Amino acid sequence: MASSVPITGSGSGRGKAISPSDTLRRKALEKLTLAIAKAVESASDDTLADIVGSNDLRHALTVAPRDIAPESPADIAAIKAAREKTTQFREEMANRSGGMYDRAQVAAMLGVSTAAIEKQRQRRQILGVPYGSELRYPAAQFVNGETLGHLKRVLEAFDDTNPWQQLMLLTTPLEGFGAEPMTLFELLARRPNNETLRQLTALVSGWAN
Fold first, then answer.
1. Rounded to 5 degrees, what angle do the CA atoms 114, 116, 122 make?
2. pLDDT in tens for each of the 209 residues of the chain?
3. What is the DSSP letter of 65?
């Protein structure tokens, strides 16, 4: 005859009852684990790169199932349209950034190893965005073979904002900081004074919250 083993507390000698909510959480975790496994198995390289490059778990969970085989022609059309929109967005961001470098190109330009580039990205000293199955580095963050001054301070102000959204905001012209609208990249390239830099980081923090 099968018997159950109680979960005991320290020195109490009594079994600890498992609440209905704990059971629901366990069953929900089992379902979610299966769903995520199926999503990852079906995911394209673009989707996998998007998940890996995301700093926001909510974004990762949102994009994970997008490559699971749809059940209707309408779903197929919607997924195709979404992918085309994503491709167009990335191309636009690349153009606004003056192009994209791969990690080896950035390492050669800065005179460091590719491992050092990854560390700089993790430390938010430079921005890398998921591009296909790789990470790419917007060219506008480098001037004359060097990283823009104070870029780290601005990137840290973005907190956990998605890297592609960061790039969109970094390449959006801003008014009020000169005679003509300029992007954050352009403003950093002009070596702003402390007051202007404070205003820029405050603006970025407002976007991120």
1. 110
2. 443 333 334 444 444 555 556 677 788 788 888 878 887 888 787 888 888 877 778 878 887 887 776 667 777 787 788 888 888 888 899 999 999 999 999 999 999 999 999 999 999 999 999 877 789 999 999 999 999 999 999 999 998 889 999 999 999 999 888 888 999 999 999 998 999 999 999 999 888 77
3. G
Residues in the chain: 209
Among candidate residues 165, 153, 191, the one with its CA nearest the CA of residue 54: 165
Give the SS3 label for residue 190.
coil
Whether the full predicted model's pTM is greater than 0.85, yes or no, is: no
**DSSP-based helix, strand, coil % in the chain, nearest 5:** 60, 10, 35
- Residue 123 CA to residue 129 CA, distance in Å, equals 14
